[in-house]
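Same chain as my last thread, 251 residues:
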Amino acid sequence: MLTRHLAFVLLPLAAACSSPSFVARRTVELELPLDDTSTVQCTSHNGGIRVENGNDVANVRVLAELQVRGYSQAEAEDNLASMAVRHDRDGGVLHVYGEHPKELNWRYSPSYAFDLTVPEQVSLQLVTHNGDVRAAGTSGSVAIETHNGSVEAQVVRPGFSIETHNGRVELAIREGGPLGGTVLTHNGSVEVSLPPGANGWLEASTHNGSIRAPEGLADTDDSRRRLRARIGDEDGGTLKVETHNGSVRIR
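reply #2:
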């Protein structure tokens, strides 16, 4: 008799602890006027972000893939209906982000995957907690942060900032001139491609891994896990590259 009562108690508990298996999805498309925007900011808690330049684009085009779960298809669809893509402006910053009731976060895994096409001249601020980030084709400054995901980026101007807690970073600097910027990953390797004509100082370090850099760098001070060297023949800024667990390769 006791066993039967325990079974009736445990079955509802098991159902409550199980993960919702039904999924609902939809796509949202927006075209936002650039106006006086100088910076495009995109924030996603769960979901990747990809940004590219559209050569003939005068506005900001947003393609967002929304996804959420439920314990039934009807519940998943109801959860999806409560999710929205928002945008607002503060000065010269256009912010694009996902919004939903907080209670969805605990069990239903809401996610927003953003694909943005932007004019070349804008600066980028991209943040996601769980997702990969890809950014290429813009000439403004670039700031990227993801907690769990890899980063691939092309930058032009010095002053960029790239950070991921768990993921690989691949960075290509497109034009020569003064260096300047930071790349940090806690768990993952880093690969940086330098252009001809780059000038400045390179500071690279890893706690667990190796560092590979081109031969013949000037004023080199290096060890297996730390490197400081001058790039080019002229003074410039400093490019700092650091990983805690992973290797660093400079090309």
